[in-house]
Amino acid sequence: MAGRLLCGCGRAAAAAWAPVPRGLPAAAGLGPRRSCGEEAGLRAMGFSEEQARQLLGLQPRLGPTRRKEAAAQLLLLGLSAEAALGLLERSPALLRMPTERLRERAQELRRLGLEGGQLGRAVSRCPQLFTLPRRKMAAAVRLLRERCLFTAEQLREVLGTCPAVLLEEPRRLHHHFQYAYFRMGVRQKEMVRARLFRTPFAELRNRHIFLERRGLYQTPHKGQTQSSNPRLRDILHLPEKDFLASLAHATPKEYEVFKKLLAREEEEEKEEEEDRDALDTEEDEDLESEGSKTAWE
């Protein structure tokens, strides 16, 4: 064992003086002994020789244990060595985070119900979960539980499949939910199954209103559901070509014209709202001016 390790270190030291092949980042600033020690430690954690060298090339000015500690935390979440390397390459800021902070955030996510592979997949899809301010994450969770009334199990499923909801501004997130709930008559259980929050709100609104204006979607009365409406998951996740052919029975040209007209309507509504706000402000100023004049007299 000792002989193999010395042999491996010798090869690593020799490689440090050889030209670095194109496409393989050099671990600048690493001496032969340090490089050998770090590489051996990463190999022991399950990284291949090539993966270890790629990790050594990330943030080469970091301390000798920072890469190893960050990688270890990601492996503990259930990520494979390949997934952990890819995540660190996409989000090098994770390497600069204190190990304790990475561990604390992982614990917070586990308290929300994310465990095992689900936690690893959520972090892999949305590495910003580690750098997200705690207050912002708490606000999103509180909104989903207290105002959107998702159960704990439903919240776990939402976070597992759509972890980016924690990055949304609460006002926009609530508007997204309210549109599906009140405007479309969709309940929480169906939202979770359809992975509502993975679809941008603009796309949801475009498809829904297009179906509605073609008489293919009816807004249910309060407290009722409309079983003849298309399923939310089909509205959201069918490719546009299939959505138009099987649900909307329309051509791509018709849909493009509709989206332009809808955008124009929204712009006009926005301008009217701004005009009303400006008029209200002027009236308030006139009243304040008149009140001040009366008081002076």
From TrEMBL:
GO terms for molecular function: nucleic acid binding. It holds the Pfam family mTERF. The keyword Nucleus does not apply. Residues 265-289 have a biased composition (Acidic residues). Keywords: Transit peptide. Residues 264-297 are annotated as: Disordered. InterPro entries: MTERF, MTERF_sf. It comes from the Eukaryota. SMART domains: Mterf. Belongs to the mTERF family. This is Mitochondrial transcription termination factor 4. It comes from Calidris pygmaea.
